[in-house]
Structure formats: structure tokens, C-alpha cells
Amino acid sequence: MKxxxxxxxxxVENQRPQLLAVLIDPDKFEEKDIARFFKQIPVITTHxxxxxxxxxxxxxxxCIRAIKNHSDLPVIIFPGDHSQVTSEADALLFxxxxxxxxxxxxxxxxxxxxxxxxxxxxxxxxTGYILVDGGKECAVQRVSKTAPLCQKEPEVIVxxxxxxxxxxxxxxxxxxxxxxxxxxxxxxxxxxxxxxxVPLIVGGGIRSKEQLELAxxxxxxxxxxxxxxxxxxxxxS
Length: 237
Ligand code: 1GP
Fold this sequence. Notes:
The protein is an alpha/beta fold. The protein has a single domain (4-230), classed as FMN-linked oxidoreductases (TIM Barrel, Alpha-Beta Barrel), CATH 3.20.20.390. The chain contains 9 helices and 8 strands. The protein has helices spanning 4-13, 34-40, 59-70, 103-117, 139-144, 154-166, 186-195, 209-218, 227-230, and strands spanning 19-24, 47-50, 75-77, 91-97, 123-131, 171-175, 200-203, 222-225. An 8-stranded parallel beta barrel has the order 1-2-3-4-5-6-7-8, surrounded by 6 helices. Helix 7 links the parallel strand 6 (171-175) and strand 7. The longest helix is centred in the middle third of the chain and has 15 residues, at 103-117. It is globular and about 45 Å long. 42% of the residues are buried. SN-glycerol-1-phosphate (1GP) is lined by residues 23, 175, 178-180, 203-206, 224-228. It comes from Salinimicrobium gaetbulicola. Its cofactor is Mg(2+). Mg(2+) binds at residues 25, 53. This is Geranylgeranylglyceryl phosphate synthase.
């Protein structure tokens, strides 16, 4: 059943719960650690994202199968490229990197995913993906060979997000990059949120409850956290 996006829209319309996605990179994932991993993530977690900039073949499937044995949370693929598409998940963020001007990540990877996708019963969620500067070069930047948008130019970020919405994206994702030195600022989140009528996802560099709360207060509908849980130090920061 295609219900992941509906669930997100319902939560946003009812203004709760605020959504928290924990990101698991299959390349760093060890099945033996999964029980411990699920014990340390917050009870408010609503979704599991699975993906990485580059992932070895077969690892995404194995990772999702292991997650499904431990949790009933919806699993959403957050792919670095078309090879990470698998029917083991509940849904796929069908990403276009709107902040960049590299056709490979605007349309080429998407076209290459179709032969497998059209034979899968996987919920597909058109998502505008916007990389903003998080203070250091991140994997998305390196792999996509595109520059992030500057946080000092919020109007460009807002225009990019709206261009995504007007092109039919159902979600907009503001990304400061995994392990960012600083996350997307609250002013940017709030400007983008006020302009959009589709849900807003924010991720990259969020390591503490304070930063999480700040992102929610600014208007993020869903926050994505990866590194802080990988390192097991979210509650200590
Ligand atoms: C998801 O890439 C982020 O948008 C995850 O970032 O690893 O810094 O939490 P962190």
C-alpha cells in the first residue's frame, strides 16, 4: 500500500508528530550491532532512511532486511544513485538535486532507475533535494560535482525550493551534508517553510536535542539525523 507520503502529509496537517528520520548508511552498517542501534535511537523516531553516496552492491537490500526484522518503522530509500533502488523498502525518495546543474543527478540517474522501478511495488516520492553549505565539503558535493547553495543567500534557496514544488515535487529536502559543521540555519528553514505548501525535510550536521528542537521550531516537518546516531553520541552532545 502506498501510504508513506500520505502519512507524512497527515502528520504535517495535524502538526504532529514532528517527524524524525534516522539515516542508516548500508556501507557502515553491521548486522551484529542492529539491536544495540535500535535501543539508542529516540522513541520519537518515525522513519528510517537508508542510503549513502556510494554503497556496495547488495548491501542496501541486506541492510533493509535486517532493519525490518527489528522494527516496524517505515523504511525509505534515500539513494546516492540508481543502484540503491530495491523493493525491500516501503518507499523511495525519487531525488533530483535541484541545487546543482549536473544533469547526471537532475535526470540521468532517475532515467537509469526506471527499468527496475517499474516492475517494483515501491512507493515513489518525487523529492527536490537542495544542498546548502554546511561549512565543509560533503560527500554529495564530491560525488555530484556540484556546489552547495550559500546560506547567506536565502532568497536563492527559497526560489530553488519553490521551483521544486512548482515542478511537482511532493517533498523538499534541505541538506547541509552528512557531518556538516553547521546545519541549515533556522532563518533559512523558516523562510523556505513559509514559502512552501509541501512538507519540508531538513538534515545534515544535527547532533543535539537543542539543534533538533531549533529545526522543528523553525518549521522543519521532518529532521534527518545520521552521524550522531552512527557515533552513538546524540544524547551526550
Ligand atoms: C541527512 O545527510 C544527512 O540529510 C545526515 O546528516 O549525518 O550529519 O546527521 P548527518
